[in-house]
Specification:
CATH architecture: 2-Layer Sandwich
CATH topology: Alpha-D-Glucose-1,6-Bisphosphate, Chain A, domain 4
Order of helices and strands: HHEEEEEEE
Number of domains: 1
Helix content: under 10%
Structural class: mainly beta
Number of helices: 2
Distance between the termini: 17 Å
CATH class: Alpha Beta
Shape: globular
Number of strands: 7
Largest sheet: 7 strands, antiparallel
Amino acid sequence: MKFRLWEAITDLSRIGDWSPECTDAAWLDGHSGPAVGARYEARNRFLHGLVTQVVCEVVAAKRPFTFGWDVYGGSVGFPEPLATWRYGLRPAAERPNRTVVRQSFTHGPGDSGLRYGPIQSIPRRSCGGVCSAQYDDADRGHGA
């Protein structure tokens, strides 16, 4: 498996290329790349105009297989993550020049306020999603 997709996914300068809400992000505390415990700041812009700033902490970073992070509120006082994101990459069994990318997202256990309204009755940490796709290793993550 090649490292191109891993490099694209962990390159914070490209996060706005494929995220519908996260517009930009930058490493904090002198970090310059993914490592467990590294933190970064991110800004989100939602369709209805709300702009938020969050601090994320890397909880999984095993090149070229996993990258995951917890999302905390943008200020001190958020002891629990508001969400957890994770990417898993593995070679496609049937086609060695392709990589299967699995992205997962879970709300909570902290309360971001995004679970109110129609999904208020869903139990904590159960609201989220998983998607998978295959990419040619030569794709370099463009359009991912």
